[in-house]
Design goal:
Elements lengths: L12 H32 L5 H12 L8 H29 L7 H32 L13 H12 L8 H29 L4 H32 L13 H12 L8 H28 L3
Helix pairs in contact: 1-3, 1-9, 3-4, 4-5, 4-6, 6-7, 7-9
Amino acid sequence: MGDEKKPKPSGVWPTIKPFVNGGTAGMLATCVIQPIDMIKVRIQLGQGSAGEVTKTMLKNEGMGAFYKGLSAGLLRQATYTTARLGSFRILTAKAIEANDGKPLPLYQKALCGLTAGAIGACVGSPADLALIRMQADATLPAAQRRNYTNAFHALYRIVADEGVLALWKGAGPTVVRAMALNMGMLASYDQSVEFFKDNLGFGEATTILGASSVSGFFAAACSLPFDYVKTQIQKMQPDALGKYPYTGSMDCAMKTLKAGGPFKFYTGFPVYCVRIAPHVMMTWIFLNQIQKVEKSFGL
């Protein structure tokens, strides 16, 4: 890393840099958020307040309990966040070039975010499936457990038992949700940085903090309706005649809209925001720090 002799990095590095940075930032954010997420799950399962849960976990299971399923979480960031943040930077760079170097209008940033989200979700879908399978495994009866040792073992077993295409099971709703989330997260971050810096004259630290908060909020706001529909579809039960309440995502969305109006999709928004926003914020803050360190090394 310390070859300061090179005046300008050439070759492969400039191309892969946004991908490496994005993935690293996402993985670091996961290391910070994972224990909080673990505590949140236990609180939702009714094991007491945050303080009580933390004390019980430390006493009974030790420090490692906070990082259960971390390998799958990190693999997901290494694939999904690497792909979405990297491709977003590449797409926006190309669009700015086509725009004669002028800042992009919001709708173009949103389009880049949508595309980056779709690319990221397609790349990250297998890791996502492994993560869900690993988390659900513990809740199954002993005889039915798949007993994956780690994320890679899970992926290997899924391919061996169910074929390669099984890795993209249920990827449709995941891709749509990722497109919405990344459109909100990526476009609003760039737009906010421009606004805070140029219009309000904020300093660097305040700009990053402000923009990452706005970005976290919009990531949650854009993706919750899709998340709501996805959850409804996943947990629907057939009635006495064996008929399901919804035929698919679109049907679920239309019926929800009819029954409860647009705000029905935002049921539980504060909780969802607390779940999504911190990871988005940490990712941007880490990404900024990584870029600073690279600059100091002349990378």
